[in-house]
């Protein structure tokens, strides 16, 4: 009762005499843990003292050592009923001290031996961390273990931002990695979220130890294999998806050199990742040897109290039991594995692009640069003779179109290109991509072949290559480094002669070459006098550009092997109908990344009603600095990424904070960024903020923020930030009962100013994810795209013979009509034209692909 009365967030300040008597009782109670009779009293006091260090009470830091000893005693209580012991409250009280050492340094605390003396407690970080590490290893209560793991994640972030290298840093990461293998989904998910948080600090981890990030990724791969090899249909597979996306983010943040570097067994890191992802996508777990590293016996992975028994949050919605739900889960896991693999192939080392990071896919569509009057997707594009659509491997849509050359620059030196360009639009699980291709011809004049009468040996040091060939080889090496035979070595430099060629063999080769030269000269002289071998001079055919449509695309498809018998079962034509057009528009509207929108509300001192809060047009300097740390400002009129419901006409403000990665987009609805002059403006602001599922409230008021101040049926999670006078920030989590636990921030956490924005952003994203899992019919973005692709393949794919398919490629505009025999009849004419082109004076030709600023040959 006394603790409830004194530890309240209220405007009434306790009188000094009252506070002194409370501190005296508190100190005596917390230090009376040696007697068994007093331990229940200590446990009761700990249960109601979680806000001891979060209310800025004067002198409250004196009880740090008392709190550590009391929490340790409570967590060591032996009880047949774990619920009766305040394990969650005790862990929360101790976890709130994680940020204190770096912020305060050495502080004075009350001594355990005497009540009126003080000692320096610069080592209390080690004491707090030791108890939390033990909780992460052995804590029997599920929510208490989640709080311990979340506090360990906060500790790691604080250490990296402060540039500290604590001796227990490696042990802390190891606890998170081991907890990833936990048999309870919620605990494993929290550990996965903490590891995902660490992936954004790869430079700091590399500075701590260069091989640390690679070891973390390898351990995550082993944990993923452990989960898929032990998970049955009765188990929930959402944690497998979380681990795969955690693995994806680590790979995206690591350098390409670290990913391709091979270990002692000759295996690269990216190879291990793709191997386990292939197993998840196909379900062939037995093909990989089970990864079962020996973990310390200190980690209790099996015997833990049920999470549901430690919280009032119903977990039923997270565990499906019907056959339809099980099939949907397995389909989602398979789609996630395929998405992660394709995402790595498409975007690794390519994100962010040199243009912007708000788009990971092209904005080009079929209607762009095509010789039609349409400016958007319409039925007219299907009538074009220069466009054909395919489905490849039942999972990828290809649009191959031919365009007249416009202002397309090809850095190819003295070579020339034809008057048309081929473009390929690719749609798959990860988005929409485009690539341009054209045929490159070398400017070479053909002439009669003659034999020189005399030869001289060429100096080996001279350049044997033509200047145009050297230029093309140099350009290939610069624009496409993966084509280099050896890293860092140009392609236009001849390979040095090996030491195996001796001088004797060299002389023999020279002698043989001289003899062969003399034989050729003698034979040429004899043939000139033999009238039977004298013929007229043949003239090289002259080049004439073809006027047939879709010629370049046909050549491209043929050279890529799509017109062969072997690949016939992998590629099919699509029925170019209005239904396909609608499905393509629907597919392009689906997000290629996970999207979230969060409300950020500023509450000034003395504000307790909706009108005053929504009328704020500015915030304090601390609030504005916090908002700047959440993301970066984007101009809503030109922003190309996720808008979060905001309009481009500035009716919701000119700018807004925005954050994104290659798999995530977050738009913040900041209350002070939106207009608030009129009642209509405030109504629009309330409509946007009220419809958000996650609210982040910055409260400088002296009273606790109440849920009903902003009336809404949403706001399933409210994360409230209370600035403290000491420079730290206390966090309050107000969530609806159906929302399970999430981290890294928890109710009662205290963090520093430096780590506050990144921890708030990560907590809000995790809260949104865990809330969506409670929705009965929720599907992640990649599964929605997979459903759209499967529907297009099922409804619009044309199952045709090889002859009909080939004729459709030669005459795209007739592919959906009854004139395919006419298209097949044009094959002979087309072959004759191509023969003339191949025998023309422009003797050397090859395709060049351009994606962005990169050209591929």
UniProtKB/TrEMBL annotation:
Pfam families per record: Rap_GAP
GO BP annotations, alphabetical order: regulation of small GTPase mediated signal transduction
Domain Rap-GAP: 584-792
The UniProt record lists the keyword Repeat: no
One Gene Ontology cellular component: cytoplasm
Single GO MF descriptor: GTPase activator activity
Keywords annotated in UniProt: GTPase activation
InterPro entries membership: Rap/Ran-GAP_sf, Rap/Ran_GAP_dom, Tuberin/Ral-act_asu
Entry superkingdom: Eukaryota
Keyword Transmembrane included in the entry's annotation: no
PANTHER family given in the database record: RHO GTPASE-ACTIVATING PROTEIN CG5521-RELATED, TUBERIN
Protein name (database record): RALGAPA1
């Amino acid at each position: 009762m006394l603790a409830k009365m004194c530890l309240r967030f209220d405007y009434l300040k306790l009188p000094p005499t009252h506070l002194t008597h409370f501190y005296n009782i508190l100190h005596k109670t917390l230090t009376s843990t040696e007697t068994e009779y007093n331990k229940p009293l200590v446990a009761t006091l700990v249960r109601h003292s979680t806000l001891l260090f979060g209310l800025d009470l004067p002198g409250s830091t004196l009880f740090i050592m008392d709190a550590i000893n009391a929490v340790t005693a409570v967590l060591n209580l032996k009880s047949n009923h774990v619920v009766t012991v305040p394990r969650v409250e005790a862990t929360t009280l101790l976890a709130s001290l994680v940020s204190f050492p770096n912020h305060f340094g050495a502080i004075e605390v009350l001594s355990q031996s005497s009540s009126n003396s003080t000692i320096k407690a610069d080592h209390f970080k080690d004491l707090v961390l030791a108890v939390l590490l033990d909780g992460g290893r052995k804590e029997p209560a599920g929510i208490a273990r989640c709080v311990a793991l979340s506090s360990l994640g906060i500790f790691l972030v604080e250490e990296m931002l402060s540039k500290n290298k604590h001796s227990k840093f490696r042990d802390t990461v190891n606890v998170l990695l081991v907890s990833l293998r936990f048999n309870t989904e919620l605990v494993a998910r929290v550990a996965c979220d903490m590891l995902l948080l660490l992936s954004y600090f790869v430079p700091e981890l590399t500075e701590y130890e260069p091989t640390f990030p690679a070891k973390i990724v390898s351990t995550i791969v082993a944990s993923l294999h452990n989960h898929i090899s032990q998970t049955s249909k009765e188990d929930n597979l959402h944690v497998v998806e979380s681990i795969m996306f955690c693995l994806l983010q680590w790979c995206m943040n690591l350098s390409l050199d670290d990913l391709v570097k091979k270990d002692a067994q000759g295996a690269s890191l990216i190879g291990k990742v793709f191997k386990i992802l292939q197993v998840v996508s196909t379900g062939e777990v037995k093909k990989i040897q089970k990864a079962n590293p020996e973990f310390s016996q200190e980690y209790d992975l099996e015997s833990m109290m049920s999470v549901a028994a430690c919280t009032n949050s119903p977990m039923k919605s997270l565990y499906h039991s019907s056959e339809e739900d099980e099939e949907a889960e397995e389909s989602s896991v398979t789609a996630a594995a395929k998405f992660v693999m394709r995402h790595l192939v498409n975007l690794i080392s390519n994100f962010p692009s040199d243009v912007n990071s708000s788009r990971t896919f092209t904005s080009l569509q079929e209607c762009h640069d095509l010789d039609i009057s349409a400016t958007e997707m319409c039925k007219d594009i299907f009538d074009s003779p220069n466009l054909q659509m395919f489905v490849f491997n039942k999972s990828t849509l290809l649009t191959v179109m031919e365009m007249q050359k416009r202002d397309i620059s090809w850095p190819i030196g003295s070579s020339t290109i034809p008057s048309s360009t081929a473009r390929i639009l690719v749609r798959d699980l990860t988005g929409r991509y485009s690539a341009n291709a054209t045929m490159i011809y070398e400017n070479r004049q053909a002439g009669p072949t003659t034999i020189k009468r005399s030869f001289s040996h060429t100096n080996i040091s001279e350049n044997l290559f033509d200047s145009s060939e050297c230029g093309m080889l140099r350009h290939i090496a610069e624009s496409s480094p993966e084509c280099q035979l050896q890293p860092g070595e140009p392609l236009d430099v001849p390979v040095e002669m090996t030491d195996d060629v001796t001088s004797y063999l060299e002389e023999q080769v020279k002698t043989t070459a001289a003899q062969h030269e003399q034989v050729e000269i003698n034979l040429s002289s004899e043939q000139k006098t033999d009238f039977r071998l004298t013929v007229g001079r043949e003239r090289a055919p002259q080049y004439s550009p073809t006027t047939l449509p879709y010629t370049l695309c046909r050549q491209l498809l043929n050279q890529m092997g799509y017109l062969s018998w072997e690949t016939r079962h992998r590629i099919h034509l699509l029925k170019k109908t209005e239904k396909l057009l609608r499905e393509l528009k629907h597919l392009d509207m689906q997000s290629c990344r996970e999207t979230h929108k969060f409300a950020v509300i500023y509450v000034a001192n003395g504000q307790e009603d909706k009108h005053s809060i929504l009328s704020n047009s500015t915030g304090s300097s601390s609030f504005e600095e916090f908002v700047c740390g959440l993301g970066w400002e984007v101009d809503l009129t030109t922003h190309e990424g996720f808008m979060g419901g905001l309009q481009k006409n500035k009716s919701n403000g000119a700018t807004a904070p925005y954050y994104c990665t290659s798999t995530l987009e977050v738009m913040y609805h900041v209350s002070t960024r939106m207009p608030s002059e009129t009642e209509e403006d405030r109504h629009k602001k309330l409509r946007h903020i009220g419809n958000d599922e996650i609210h982040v409230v910055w409260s400088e008021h002296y009273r606790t923020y109440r849920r009903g101040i902003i009336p809404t049926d949403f706001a399933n999670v409210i994360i409230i930030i209370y600035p403290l006078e000491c420079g730290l920030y206390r966090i309050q989590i107000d969530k609806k009962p159906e929302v399970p636990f999430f981290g890294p921030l928890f109710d009662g956490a205290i963090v520093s100013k430096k780590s506050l924005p990144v921890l708030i952003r990560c907590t809000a994203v995790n809260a949104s994810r865990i809330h969506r899992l409670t929705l009965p019919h929720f599907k992640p973005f990649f599964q929605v795209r997979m459903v759209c692709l499967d529907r297009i393949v099922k409804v619009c794919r044309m199952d045709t013979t090889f002859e009909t398919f080939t004729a459709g490629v030669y005459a795209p505009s007739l592919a959906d009509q009854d004139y395919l025999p006419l298209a097949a009849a044009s094959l002979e004419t087309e072959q004759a034209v191509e023969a003339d082109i191949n025998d023309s004076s422009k003797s050397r030709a090859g395709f060049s692909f351009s994606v962005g600023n990169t050209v591929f040959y």
